[in-house]
């Protein structure tokens, strides 16, 4: 529509000499009016559903409709009249176009207000269910409360995902993405930490472990609110307050080294124009001090080796000297007289910029060296395994000793994130570096608390499960950090973005989902994960954990959870073929579970519980058949493979949901049978 309006306004600059051109303009005018009519129809439907903006929205729609009709009328003229009144016609067309654009802008702003309102309402609902979840004291009440919380989270994931796509800047979209990621990962940790606390309330560590997850979840919810209402200019706590480029939780605005170097280089280039006037020279000196201040995170770091530290200090000193040389060259009277930089000044500018490039390269090498060093040894796996083993053996002292080493390792990882942020090079990577630093800082004490809880309750399956969840969360953060290092290294080497992986018509080998595909399927994956959480909570009700129904249902829940991890690019399933193979086993297990529960139902006396069980049970074969049917469908090409992945996850979610309901019905029937 905007292109068509531009065409109508611009055509008046050239005289129209044929009826053919006139008819073409008439068609454009009609098309504009039709598009406006469709647009305002949507706006009016939004007004009907939202009383608080109804009047303003209806007025804006009326204004847009009037302008659209005016534009069509102005194009419906004969050739003679148009030639006689060309100037007046153009003025009227410009006025109508401005009126239309103004009205459309008003409609869009009002519609955006509705979207934000919906998001905040979804966030408030999650906050309410979270508050209720924190107060429950019984296991049955907790299962119900968590189920409601999960449903509310799915709704929030949907509307916040839509809002993320609407945000204008890459930085704002990344901020929303990492905050939504915090909420998603917190869901499983909330489940297991709360279950552990309910089972072992006498252990202080279990309470601290659970409370920390609630705090983290609330901070993420508040950040969602602020991002929705203020875009990138927010003040939350998803990222550490000491950092300054992400816009999240900014107590002070310390720039990254990469940004400081870029600003300094720009001022050096500008000196060709300013010829180092007193004000521009003062700006250069101030910019240099800011730049050197950002390098102190590198030189002050205990993990920076001596040679790298010395090189950074020497390069900073070289930069000071080059700027001093530039200052002397800029004060040369010849430059002032000619109005252009002298050869001496031009040479000094080039030398200063070369010193900048050398310093930037050294900072990049230092940050990537630290990252490489920390990834060389498999420290995370060893420490997590040692803490878990000590907890299972009730070796409290050993857990404490290993926790100290784990905390030291976490500090080193946080230091790596801080330096990576300085050399990230793009706003998106800066936000991710800050996010990972924050997550490492929050997750470290929670992980050690989970292990300490296990050491006091070494025979507890719930406490062990809780440790596994926090260990997996830590492993996920380390995986994200390794991806960040790869991305930053690519940027440093001049690659704009990482290569995407996907199937093509010429290549049928197993592939991974691209980041874009993972984003598309994220909501579906989250829904399935929440169902597995509900399923696990239902299974915990059974007194006999070795019951055949419970054992098989838990096994299927684990399989579904692995498939969820695949949608995030994590977990044991690495390729689409791995996913399809897992889904085949999942469908087979569903058929076996159906037969076992069918036999069990024959032992249940007639009545409403048995009738409900059979109603739920009859759905299992249908969902198993649908999943098998999807798996057998052939694929060729990237789009077809992704569609198959999407369908498999959807079918798995449906089957898992049915199994969760069947297990609940079985528990009710088992209670009746035992009584």
UniProtKB/TrEMBL annotation:
<dbReference type="InterPro" id="IPR001033">
    <property type="entry name" value="Alpha_catenin"/>
</dbReference>
<dbReference type="GO" id="GO:0007155">
    <property type="term" value="P:cell adhesion"/>
</dbReference>
<protein>
    <recommendedName>
        <fullName>Alpha-catulin</fullName>
    </recommendedName>
</protein>
<dbReference type="InterPro" id="IPR030045">
    <property type="entry name" value="CTNNAL1"/>
</dbReference>
<dbReference type="Pfam" id="PF01044">
    <property type="entry name" value="Vinculin"/>
</dbReference>
<dbReference type="InterPro" id="IPR036723">
    <property type="entry name" value="Alpha-catenin/vinculin-like_sf"/>
</dbReference>
<dbReference type="GO" id="GO:0051015">
    <property type="term" value="F:actin filament binding"/>
</dbReference>
<keyword id="KW-0963">Cytoplasm</keyword>
<dbReference type="GO" id="GO:0005737">
    <property type="term" value="C:cytoplasm"/>
</dbReference>
<dbReference type="GO" id="GO:0007266">
    <property type="term" value="P:Rho protein signal transduction"/>
</dbReference>
<dbReference type="GO" id="GO:0045296">
    <property type="term" value="F:cadherin binding"/>
</dbReference>
<comment type="similarity">
    <text>Belongs to the vinculin/alpha-catenin family.</text>
</comment>
<dbReference type="InterPro" id="IPR006077">
    <property type="entry name" value="Vinculin/catenin"/>
</dbReference>
């Amino acid at each position: 529509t905007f292109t068509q309006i531009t065409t109508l306004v611009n055509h008046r600059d050239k005289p129209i000499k044929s009826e053919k051109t006139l008819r073409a303009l008439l068609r454009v005018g009609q098309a504009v009016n039709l598009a406006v009519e469709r647009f305002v129809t949507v706006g009016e439907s939004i007004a009907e559903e939202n009383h608080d903006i109804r009047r303003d929205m209806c007025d804006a729609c009326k204004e847009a409709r009037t302008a659209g009709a005016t534009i069509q009328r102005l194009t419906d003229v004969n050739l003679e009249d148009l030639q006689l009144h060309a100037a007046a016609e153009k003025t009227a067309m410009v006025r109508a176009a401005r009126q239309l654009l103004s009205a459309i802008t008003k409609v869009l702003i009002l519609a955006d207000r509705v979207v934000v309102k919906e998001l905040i309402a979804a966030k408030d609902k999650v906050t309410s269910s979270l508050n209720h979840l924190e107060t429950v004291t019984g296991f049955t009440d907790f299962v119900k409360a968590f189920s409601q919380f999960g449903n509310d989270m799915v709704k929030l994931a949907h509307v916040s995902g839509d809002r993320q796509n609407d945000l204008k800047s890459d930085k704002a979209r990344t901020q929303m993405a990492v905050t939504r990621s915090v909420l998603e990962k917190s869901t499983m940790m909330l489940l297991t930490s709360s279950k552990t606390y309910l089972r072992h309330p006498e252990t202080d560590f279990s309470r601290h472990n659970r409370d920390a997850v609630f705090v983290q979840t609330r901070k993420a919810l508040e950040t969602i609110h602020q991002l929705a209402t203020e875009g990138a200019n927010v003040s939350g706590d998803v990222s550490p307050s000491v950092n300054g480029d992400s816009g999240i939780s900014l107590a002070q605005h310390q720039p990254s080294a990469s940004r400081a170097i870029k600003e300094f280089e720009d001022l050096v280039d500008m000196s060709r124009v300013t010829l180092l006037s007193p004000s521009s020279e003062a700006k250069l000196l101030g910019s240099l001090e800011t730049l050197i201040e950002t390098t102190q995170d590198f030189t002050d770091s205990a993990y920076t080796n001596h040679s790298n530290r010395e090189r950074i200090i020497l390069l900073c000193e070289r930069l000071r000297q080059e700027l001093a040389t530039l200052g002397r060259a800029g004060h040369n009277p010849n430059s002032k007289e000619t109005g252009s930089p002298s050869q001496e000044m031009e040479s000094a500018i080039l030398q200063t910029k070369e010193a900048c490039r050398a310093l930037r390269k050294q900072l990049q090498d230092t940050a990537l060296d630290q990252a490489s060093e920390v990834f060389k040894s498999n420290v995370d796996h060893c420490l997590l395994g040692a803490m878990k083993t000590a907890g299972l053996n009730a070796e409290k002292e050993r857990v404490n000793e290993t926790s100290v080493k784990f905390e030291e390792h976490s500090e080193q990882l946080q230091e790596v994130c801080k330096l990576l942020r300085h050399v990230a090079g793009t706003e998106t990577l800066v936000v991710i570096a800050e996010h990972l630093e924050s997550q490492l800082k929050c997750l470290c004490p929670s992980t050690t608390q989970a292990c300490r809880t296990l050491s006091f309750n070494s025979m507890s399956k719930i406490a062990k499960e809780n440790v596994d969840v926090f260990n997996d969360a830590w492993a996920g953060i380390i995986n994200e950090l390794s991806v960040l290092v790869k991305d930053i290294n690519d940027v440093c080497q001049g690659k704009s973005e990482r290569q995407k992986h996907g199937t093509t018509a010429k290549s049928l080998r197993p592939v991974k989902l691209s980041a874009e595909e993972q984003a598309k399927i994220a909501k579906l994956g989250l829904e399935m994960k929440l169902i597995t959480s509900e399923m696990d909570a239902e299974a915990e009700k059974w007194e006999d954990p070795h019951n055949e129904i419970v054992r098989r249902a838990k096994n299927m829940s684990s399989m579904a959870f692995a498939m969820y991890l695949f949608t995030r690019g994590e977990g044991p399933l690495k390729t689409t073929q791995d996913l399809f193979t897992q889904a085949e086993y999942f469908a087979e297990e569903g058929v076996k579970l159906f037969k076992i529960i069918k036999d069990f139902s024959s032992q249940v006396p007639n009545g409403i519980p048995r009738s409900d069980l059979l109603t739920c049970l009859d759905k299992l074969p249908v969902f198993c058949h649908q999943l098998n049917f999807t798996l057998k469908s052939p694929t060729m090409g990237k789009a077809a493979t992704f569609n198959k992945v999407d369908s498999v996850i959807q079918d798995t979610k449906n089957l898992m949901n049915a199994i969760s309901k069947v297990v609940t019905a079985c528990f009710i029937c088992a209670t009746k049978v035992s009584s």
